[in-house]
Write a structure and sequence with these properties.
alpha/beta; four-stranded mixed β-sheet; seven-stranded mixed β-sheet
């Protein structure tokens, strides 16, 4: 591998040998991992965590120490949710079948799922993961539009298959971006004021469209995570994407909203993140929290592109839409609707934001706070400090929280934004515990850490 491709740290908050003195139990297990697993596997945190059990908001290590999970958006209704687990076990005891057989629960769930979307979005194809969902959505968009070009944000992440890795600049320089991809800067990371955000985004998208057309590539899709989580969690101003959306549609392209992270009530005000912007996409991709940990995803979309793809291209996926996955997903949707999860997310999100704002008034290391519901991006480090200092401080805070048995991570191009996304069932006590732990971590040596760099 070329030396210049080795310079980027693809997971800055990872364990490196020598970072920590580990007990023999963990050191031996790491040695066994390294001897048998591929090099792409990495352990999170400078001192790896070792869990044997999960329940609700908590993860437990072999010694029984409980860690508050404020990071994991896959079990969004809590680790080992008993209702989802019961649905999984019940269906597994009956039959695990695929979509080529008549199965009423598959149709029941598809009807329930599409009912949560705007009326224009009324068809669904199931997948196993968010990566598969985005891969399939790109196939549909390219066939329906006749174009090849895909427009993404400058630090986007959309999955791990070859097709979606090629539209995911977040994966690092060693993963080549497709020549059919154009990256656009977001107003927030570019420092564009809110009043000019929509114009900035539209201009970026129009320039990408122009370049794709000049090169004879054409436009297949604008693909974006509707909370721009990998770019640092940029949610405002609402609707700033609308001009870019219309420009792509006028150019013959489709709009694909990646809801793998913001979907299923994460933003609180809406079931789906794209609703925050007042748009109706052509295709929506789902994954992660859809089965609360059981691998199931989907592409939900408008009838016309879905039918054009379905009658002209073959798509068969052995495990997608299997009856066990559908049972899990059905239980998740039932809980979200029955227990008024969206309202709860708004209440807890507001409490967490108020607590962070109070903390920021005493802690200058908290530079900015952005959120939609229970998905937060918290910028770390004084504005005039160098990027390397802000990044180090953010990573130091993440690992200080880990030592205090609270789990979060980082995001953004410089990895100086704390990514906080607790399970949607968090309560007042969990929010306050997180705020207390962050206050302790900041109360150590936050400004001294910046000064040292």
């Amino acid at each position: 591998m070329k030396a210049d491709l080795m310079t980027t740290d693809l997971m800055p908050n990872r364990f490196r040998p020598g970072d920590s003195v580990l007990p023999a139990r963990e050191a031996d297990l790491i040695a066994r991992r390294d001897a048998v697993l591929g090099a792409s596997y990495r352990l999170q945190y400078r001192k790896p965590v070792h869990f044997v059990r999960g329940e609700g908001m908590w993860l437990y290590d072999p010694d029984g120490r409980a860690y508050l999970d404020f990071y994991n958006n896959v079990p969004s209704l809590g680790h080992c949710n008993p209702e989802v687990n019961a649905a999984m076990a019940d269906q597994a005891g009956r039959i695990s079948a695929n979509t080529r057989y008549l199965e009423p629960r598959l149709v029941d769930y598809a009807e329930r799922l599409t009912a949560t979307f705007p009326a224009e979005i009324d068809r669904v194809v199931f997948t196993c993961t968010g990566s598969e969902s985005n891969d399939l959505a790109l196939r549909i968009a390219r066939l329906a539009s006749g174009g090849e070009g895909v427009i993404v944000s400058s630090y986007a992440y959309h999955g791990t298959s070859a097709a979606v890795a090629a539209v995911s600049p977040n994966l690092g320089e060693a993963v080549q971006i497709s020549p059919f991809v154009r990256m656009v800067t977001l107003p927030g990371p570019a420092g564009v004021p809110g009043a000019q955000a929509a114009a900035h985004f539209e201009a970026e998208v129009r320039a990408a469209i122009h370049d794709l057309k000049r090169r004879g590539i054409g436009v297949a899709a604008l693909l974006f995570d509707s909370i721009f989580s990998s770019d640092g969690v940029w949610t405002h101003p609402p609707g700033f994407v609308a001009g870019g959306v219309e420009a792509v549609r006028a150019a013959g392209g489709l709009i694909i909203c990646d809801e793998v992270q913001p979907g299923f009530g994460r933003t609180g005000a809406h079931m789906w993140g794209f609703q925050h912007h007042g748009i109706v996409p052509d295709l929506v991709t789902l994954g992660k929290p859809m089965g609360n940990g059981f691998p199931i995803g989907a592409v939900v979309g408008r009838k016309a592109p879905m039918e054009r793809f379905g009658v002209t291209a073959r798509y068969s996926n052995t495990f997608a839409g299997n009856t066990i996955g559908i049972a899990c997903a059905d239980a998740v949707l039932t809980i979200i609707e029955r227990d008024s999860i969206l309202g709860h997310v708004q209440t807890m999100g507001a409490r967490l934001r108020k607590g962070l704002e109070d903390l920021a008034s005493r802690q200058p290391a908290l530079r900015a706070i952005r959120n939609a519901g229970l998905f937060f991006g918290i910028d770390i480090g004084a504005p005039d400090s160098p990027p390397a200092a802000r990044r180090k401080l953010a990573l130091d805070l993440v690992n200080a929280l880990r030592e205090d048995a609270v789990l979060v991570s980082t995001t953004g191009a410089n990895e100086d934004t704390l990514k906080v996304r607790p399970p949607l069932i968090c309560e007042v006590g969990h929010v306050d515990l997180f705020l207390s732990s962050l206050d302790r971590a900041l109360g150590g040596t936050p400004l001294r850490i910046v000064a040292e760099l």
